[in-house]
Design brief:
The protein is of the alpha+beta class. The chain contains five helices and ten strands. A six-stranded mixed β-sheet has the order 8-7-6-3-10-9. A two-stranded antiparallel sheet has the order 1-2. The longest helix has 14 residues, at about 115-130. The radius of gyration is 18 Å and the shape is globular.
C-alpha cells in the first residue's frame, strides 16, 4: 500500500530493478526511514482506548525492523568518461521477520531474506572481502504523523552501522521466475486496509 499524489491509499505492484548492480555498503542494525508515501496506519498502532502510538519496532534497529538486522544496498554503476558514480534506486537485499511476506513475495521491490540468512550473507562478505569500517551513520530524519487528531513525531537519529566493501561486490539481478499481474492505483479492499 502507498499514498498516491492525491492522498488516496492505493495498492501498487512494485518490481525490482533488473540488471547489473553492486553491493558497496553493508548496514548493520539499520533503521528504516519510511518515505512520505507510507500510510500513517502502517506506522502507528491504535489501542482500545483510541490512543495512537508509533510502531517503533518497525523503524528503530532490531530484528523486527522493516530491514531486519542487516541490509545491503543495490547501487547501479554509472560511468561517464573517467568518473564513476553510484545510483541508489531504493532496492536492497535485507533481513525480515515477516516470514509470511517472504513466502508471498510482497515487497517494495527489495530482496528479503530470513534474518539469519541475511546475517550469514553479510558475515560471509565481511570475512571474504576487504572493507572499511565507517561506523555509525547519523541522520536527521524527522516526520510528523497526524492520526485521529493526534500528532506523533518520528525522530530517527541513526541510520545504522556502515561497512564499505572495497572493491564492491558485483550482483546481477535476473528476471523473476514467476511474474505476477501488475496492480496499479487500486484502492485496497476493506480487509487489506484493516490488516495493513
Amino acid at each position: 500500500k502507498e499514498r498516491a499524489d492525491d492522498g488516496e491509499i492505493v495498492v501498487k505492484y512494485k518490481k525490482s530493478d533488473v540488471g547489473d548492480r553492486v553491493w558497496r555498503q553493508i548496514i548493520a542494525a539499520p533503521a528504516w526511514l519510511p518515505p512520505e508515501s507510507t500510510p500513517e496506519t502502517d506506522l502507528t498502532h491504535e489501542d482500545k482506548e483510541g490512543n495512537v502510538s508509533l510502531k517503533r519496532d518497525l523503524i528503530q534497529p532490531g530484528y523486527r525492523n522493516a530491514y531486519g538486522l542487516v541490509m545491503l544496498i543495490h547501487d547501479e554503476v554509472v560511468e561517464r568518461g573517467s568518473k564513476t558514480t553510484y545510483v541508489d534506486h531504493g532496492i536492497r537485499t535485507h533481513g525480515s521477520v515477516d516470514y509470511r511476506s517472504i513466502k508471498r513475495g510482497s515487497s517494495h521491490g527489495c530482496h528479503r531474506l530470513y534474518n539469519q540468512l541475511a546475517l550469514r550473507l553479510s558475515g560471509f562478505l565481511l570475512q571474504h572481502r576487504a572493507f572499511e569500517t565507517r561506523g555509525k551513520m547519523h541522520t536527521d530524519f524527522k516526520r510528523v504523523l497526524e492520526v485521529n487528531e493526534q500528532t506523533i513525531e518520528m525522530d530517527v537519529p541513526s541510520r545504522g552501522y556502515l561497512y564499505e566493501l572495497d572493491p564492491p561486490v558485483p550482483v546481477k539481478v535476473l528476471e523473476g521466475s514467476e511474474e505476477k499481474a501488475p496492480v496499479s492505483a487500486v484502492k485496497p479492499t476493506a480487509a487489506q486496509a484493516r490488516n495493513g
